[in-house]
Structure to design on (166 residues):
């Protein structure tokens, strides 16, 4: 099961929650890059796959739709949705490969560059725009919805992970 912050989502707003997940994603990428053997790399990839898919679903089904309501935030959607799409394609390509395959490493490099740019854009531009448009109550409500979507989606992701290359 995916592990996220133990703080109550009622007390967190969506931006705090997303930033915490960003740190977890960065840590999982670093751990995958540092894996010393194929078995460890496969385990690390499963962890990264899990958190990226759950994060993707939460943003796609909760956070991004809320951004459509405001002109100041809607302008970012085309770019972030394209980045999400590319991320999912790269993950699925990697899913078909062994971590010892040179193509896997090339895809991981692409994935890391894409994700790091995405995180930087969200945290340095989008989050500020969101804070100017949404009040604290709305941000907390989005956090609750985000966590709910992740809980509902987790079993589907777990089933996909079982199908990953052994």
């Amino acid at each position: 099961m995916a592990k996220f912050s133990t703080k109550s989502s009622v007390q967190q707003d969506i931006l705090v929650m997303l930033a915490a997940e960003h740190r977890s994603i960065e840590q999982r990428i670093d751990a995958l890059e540092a894996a010393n053997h194929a078995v460890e790399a496969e385990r690390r990839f499963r962890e990264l796959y899990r958190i990226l898919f759950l994060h993707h679903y939460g943003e796609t089904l909760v956070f991004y739709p809320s951004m459509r309501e405001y002109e100041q935030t809607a302008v970012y959607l085309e770019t972030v949705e394209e980045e999400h799409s590319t991320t999912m394609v790269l993950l699925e390509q990697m899913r078909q490969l062994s971590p010892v395959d040179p193509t896997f490493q090339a895809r991981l490099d692409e994935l890391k560059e894409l994700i790091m740019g995405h995180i930087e854009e969200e945290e340095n531009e989008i989050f500020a725009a969101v804070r100017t448009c949404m009040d604290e109550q709305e941000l907390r409500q989005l956090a609750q919805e985000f966590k709910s979507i992740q809980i509902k989606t987790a079993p589907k992701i777990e089933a996909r992970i079982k199908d990953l290359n052994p």
